[in-house]
What does this fold into?
Amino acid sequence: MVRSLYTAATGMIAQQQNVDNISNNLANVNTVGYKQQKTEFKSLLYQTVQTRTTTANGEQKPISAQVGLGTRVASNTSVYTQGVMIASESNTDFAIVGDGFFAVRGADGETYYTRAGNFIWAMGANGQVTLSTAEGYPVLGTNGNPISLPAGVNAGMVEITSNGQFGYRTQNGAFVDLNQGFALYQFNNPGGLEKIGTNLLAESDASGAPLNEATGQGLVRSQVRQNYLEGSNVQVADEMVNMIIAQRAYQLNSKAITTSDEMLEQANNLKR
It folds into this structure.
């Protein structure tokens, strides 16, 4: 019966982590580019109670008696389905349609990836007006450098073509191409990307190396839509149902502990 206490305890711990994950999904229901996470479970080791029959010849039983020792969280898997398109009045809001990721340069000089396209024009370290995230991280272009405006070009003159290329209009209405565009990357296993907060993702061994859509072979290129943002793909109704299921599972494991405790108490009372 002590085994049942530990087994039920692992179930309560796992369901608590499940509720934590669901709560995080609900907290980010309005976060731009957020991807829903789903908790995956796996069973713990099994303990063999009996393998042989009770007959005198001691033959093997057709089916052995094994007791499981509980469960644990195996992973929190991100679901990279397309989020809803939210119209925006800002010309620096962009949404990706497809499997691509924007690339940004972090404060440590490393390249990170994001689906959140709520960018701004800000003064860069080199004194140029640079497209940046809300935290000030520069957005990278196809040449691997931050997307910046040349001298004499202000942010109000900038236009973005349907294929994500940047340019501006002169006073006489002529369009000048800046030869800069969004660098979009894909991953063989996007679920393996490491989450570091502020909507940024880091490359990992599990995700594989980033694949540049501009040079990668066999990649379906993503589209960039200006004046749109990709909303979270969290479904509130589904998360509330998952919350109820997790609560019920937590209560059942709690009841198993209570029952085991009562049985132990009755066994101890037999000695009196």
Helices lie at 2-27, 236-269. The two ends are 20 Å apart (CA to CA). Residues 2-79+234-269 form one domain.
